[in-house]
Amino acid sequence: xxxxxxxxxxxxxxxxxxxxxxxxxxxxxxxxxxxxxxxxxxxxxxxxxxxxxxxxxxxxxxxxxxxxxxxxxxxxxxxxxxxxxxxxxxxxxxxxxxxxxxxxxxxxxxxxxxxxxxxxxxxxxxxxxxxxxxxxxxxxxxxxxxxxxxxxxxxxxxxxxxxxxxxxxxxxxxxxxxxxxxxxxxxxxxxxxxxxxxxxxxxxxxxxxxxxxxxxxxxxxxxxxxxxxxxxxxxxxxxx
Length: 240
Fold this sequence. Notes:
Order of helices and strands: EEHEEHEEEEEHEEH
Oligomer: single chain
Helix content: 10-25%
Radius of gyration: 19 Å
Strand content: 25-35%
Distance between the termini: 25 Å
């Protein structure tokens, strides 16, 4: 965890793939509890520290997580999330399928067309609570929720491509599920079809930046999280 923004009302961190935003059945300490302890010690607060969780980020995912330090900020930013006024941009790494012409449709029923290098995706997602995963459908089905995003390829190597993703809805495992559905599972994401895990146990999905009007000061706020420190991320982002 790295603190990347803080004022009297908000604290924003860049989380690693080993940290959880909220407590779960593992019993591991959550980011919220870690931050409360840090603030209490750093600021020498005698009482309990208020810290509100404003949104979640999957455990194997890295990047921006926003917490509220006051009840006023929490109420307002929660409303902003609900109204789509917090704009989130993700980066993720997938296989560079475009470099391999053999992946294009050749008449075989088992092959699908290459995904576009930039596209708007609209699917209907059904969440499976038992398996902790979602399934994407091309049309509305019972118990489904509409999921919308835009992605584009922004860098590539011979084996991998870096996508920038803009979310327009906030569904369970949305990016992971929708990209996998069109043949672009995220690197390391075994749950959604990538063949191999990453050495650190995470997936190559990074909450890169958020922008919003500050819920208290009303100032335009732009926050960016550094990408994970490994060779592949460096190779891809060095092209930008």
